[in-house]
């Protein structure tokens, strides 16, 4: 169980997340929807501690992960893998190595950087790639793959962390509809087969309704809707998107503007590790 208790996040005087409380049972597939600026990314990033709450608690299996430091924090970040809109692969490295980087938090960095992955880890990486139907790309440079394939590599890398929770921040916003479908099916598949909690920000209501058991609607940093796909009536959608935002809610052509809004761009795990040394 993941419990978000009265969480608020301020940036200066601006309140991006305003006293949000949620309980997410293990194994749920949750879609978070809302207009750009509603606070979706901030909420997800606080769960994984890329951003710290200003107030409130985030409890996972009883531990307040908002207060973790050092090794305990790294363990939590391993337990909740994050998938980004822009994939965050290392484009010059081959697919297999990118997937193996998901093991970084399980092992010594020096070994990882020297490419000393064990036979077991390599087998695990191949299995993850097979699972996502992209094993044939294993030796290609990640940057040469299509967006949909790259996002599947990112999911395979996330699986290498053996996570309990998978967080995905608009994983399909940069993809064409066909690839978007494949990626959403992959997320649903790991949710169903592995019993992993999947929490994904989605720009459009249709995708959330189609793939998620539970939909959380945000507006102005608050949760304004929380229910199943069938509860998401037009009235509820208006509350989430506002009357003038309804056309965005249904348009697959609209992509997230999070990258251009000046929010910090996530860096690749490899860069993060190098920076931390
Ligand atoms: N690092 C930051 N500094 C200042 N303001 C931020 C920062 N991150 C997010 N915000 C602001 O918080 C609000 C919510 O942002 P965000 O969580 O990215 O929304 P969404 O993902 O729903 O588009 C926006 O108004 C955004 O500009
Ligand atoms: Mg966002």
From TrEMBL:
Keyword Manganese recorded: no
**Do you know which CDD domains this protein is assigned to?**
ABC_PhnC_transporter
Q: Which Gene Ontology cellular-component terms appear in the entry?
A: membrane
What protein name does the entry list?
A: Phosphonate ABC transporter ATP-binding protein
Q: Name one GO molecular function term.
A: ABC-type phosphonate transporter activity
Which Pfam family is an annotated match for this chain, by its short name? ABC_tran
Query: What family name appears in the similarity comment?
Result: Belongs to the ABC transporter superfamily.
Q: Which UniProt keywords apply?
A: ATP-binding, Cell membrane, Membrane, Nucleotide-binding, Translocase, Transport
Q: List, for all copies, the residue spans of the domain called ABC transporter.
A: 2-245
Q: Which NCBIfam families match?
A: ABC_phnC
* Record's signal peptide: none
> Record's SUPFAM superfamilies?
P-loop containing nucleoside triphosphate hydrolases
């Amino acid at each position: 169980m993941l419990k978000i208790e009265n969480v608020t996040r301020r940036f200066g005087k601006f309140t991006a997340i305003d006293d949000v409380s949620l309980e997410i049972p293990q194994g749920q597939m949750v879609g978070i929807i809302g207009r750009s600026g509603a606070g979706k990314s901030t909420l997800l990033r606080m769960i994984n501690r890329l951003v710290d709450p200003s107030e409130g608690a985030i409890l996972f299996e009883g531990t307040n992960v908002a207060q973790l430091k050092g090794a305990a924090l790294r363990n939590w970040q391993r337990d909740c893998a994050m998938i980004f809109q822009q994939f965050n692969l290392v484009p010059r490295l081959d697919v297999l190595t990118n997937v193996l980087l998901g093991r970084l938090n399980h092992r010594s960095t020096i070994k990882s950087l020297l490419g000393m992955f064990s036979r077991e880890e390599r087998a695990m990486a191949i299995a993850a790639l097979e699972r996502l139907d992209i094993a044939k790309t294993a030796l290609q440079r990640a940057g040469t793959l299509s967006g949909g394939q790259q996002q599947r590599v990112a999911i395979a890398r996330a699986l290498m962390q053996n996570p309990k929770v998978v967080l995905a921040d608009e994983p399909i916003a940069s993809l064409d509809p066909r690839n978007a479908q494949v990626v959403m099916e992959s997320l649903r598949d790991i949710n169903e087969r592995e019993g992993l909690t999947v929490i994904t920000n989605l720009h459009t209501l249709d995708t959330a309704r189609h793939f998620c058991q539970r939909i959380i609607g945000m507006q102005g940093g608050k949760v304004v809707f929380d229910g199943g796909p069938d509860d998401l009536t037009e009235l509820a959608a208006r509350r989430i998107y506002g009357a003038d935002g309804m056309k965005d809610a249904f348009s697959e052509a609209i992509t997230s503007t999070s990258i251009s809004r000046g929010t910090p761009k996530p860096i690749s795990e490899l860069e993060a590790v190098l920076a931390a040394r």
